[in-house]
Amino acid sequence: MQGIELSFLYFLSAFLAAGNSVKDFPTSMISGGQNVFPHDFPWQASIQFHTGHHFCGGALIDSYWLLTAAHCMEQHQPNQIRVVLGEHTLSEIEGTEQYRNISRIVISPFFNVVRPEYNYYMPYDLALLELTTPANLNSFVKPISLPDPNKSYSGRSCILTGWGNTGVNADGADVLQMAEIKTLENRVCGDTWGYYIYYGNICVYTYGVAPCQGDSGGPLMCLDNNGYVLAGISSWDDTDCKDHPSIYTRVTENLGWINDVIDNDGHN
């Protein structure tokens, strides 16, 4: 079955209608990042139009499945986009790339739920992309592990990656960028923003470092048991991408839905 399985309205309008100010949603770039050593993060994906224009990131979690942000997908059909795996420098063909079309976009059934009475976005900004043919797993392309459902990954030093803009008025990065960033307790994050941040979000902040335009949907990776796990997916941020914590969707809160979709995909 093709197409987006769940239709929904863009939930920012409801949030703003509730009298909230702000935050450009979506935003995402890495401001203050540095070049990644080639293929250090082989699950990183570039989501592109067929022209080759990169517009969002994603993380490979299975040979057939990519996790990204729902807001990246809400205006697109599977035949309009492609996924590039094994990518490092967008402007170069390096021989490690794998190009895949999309057969399905599956958006979280809880996305677009807004609770204006509590003054927060609900934390379900996730979409699963099913590849038409599986990724060829090798040293350049491999899935990232999903997180331990019993861990919060708050108060850690983690890594974010992407090809987004390198500053508010800058262009998108050609070479994949990375930055080390601290995860915060949601209470501290909420105090900074001035409203409640639901547990289904995970907040990150390090002065001078932030995701912005072009990194939405990209991974937040934390070390756990000698390897990286996917702790979050880039969701939204401040307009200047530096003065407030950045907000990711917490993957542990969505493992049931993710596993249900993958377990029933007919590929196993």
From TrEMBL:
<keyword id="KW-0865">Zymogen</keyword>
<keyword id="KW-0732">Signal</keyword>
<feature type="domain" description="Peptidase S1">
    <location>
        <begin position="30"/>
        <end position="263"/>
    </location>
</feature>
<feature type="signal peptide">
    <location>
        <begin position="1"/>
        <end position="21"/>
    </location>
</feature>
<dbReference type="InterPro" id="IPR018114">
    <property type="entry name" value="TRYPSIN_HIS"/>
</dbReference>
<dbReference type="Pfam" id="PF00089">
    <property type="entry name" value="Trypsin"/>
</dbReference>
<dbReference type="InterPro" id="IPR043504">
    <property type="entry name" value="Peptidase_S1_PA_chymotrypsin"/>
</dbReference>
<dbReference type="InterPro" id="IPR009003">
    <property type="entry name" value="Peptidase_S1_PA"/>
</dbReference>
<keyword id="KW-1015">Disulfide bond</keyword>
<keyword id="KW-0645">Protease</keyword>
<keyword id="KW-0720">Serine protease</keyword>
<dbReference type="InterPro" id="IPR051487">
    <property type="entry name" value="Ser/Thr_Proteases_Immune/Dev"/>
</dbReference>
<keyword id="KW-0378">Hydrolase</keyword>
<keyword id="KW-0964">Secreted</keyword>
<protein>
    <recommendedName>
        <fullName>Peptidase S1 domain-containing protein</fullName>
    </recommendedName>
</protein>
<comment type="similarity">
    <text>Belongs to the peptidase S1 family. CLIP subfamily.</text>
</comment>
<dbReference type="GO" id="GO:0006508">
    <property type="term" value="P:proteolysis"/>
</dbReference>
<dbReference type="InterPro" id="IPR001314">
    <property type="entry name" value="Peptidase_S1A"/>
</dbReference>
<dbReference type="InterPro" id="IPR033116">
    <property type="entry name" value="TRYPSIN_SER"/>
</dbReference>
<dbReference type="GO" id="GO:0005576">
    <property type="term" value="C:extracellular region"/>
</dbReference>
<dbReference type="InterPro" id="IPR001254">
    <property type="entry name" value="Trypsin_dom"/>
</dbReference>
<dbReference type="GO" id="GO:0004252">
    <property type="term" value="F:serine-type endopeptidase activity"/>
</dbReference>
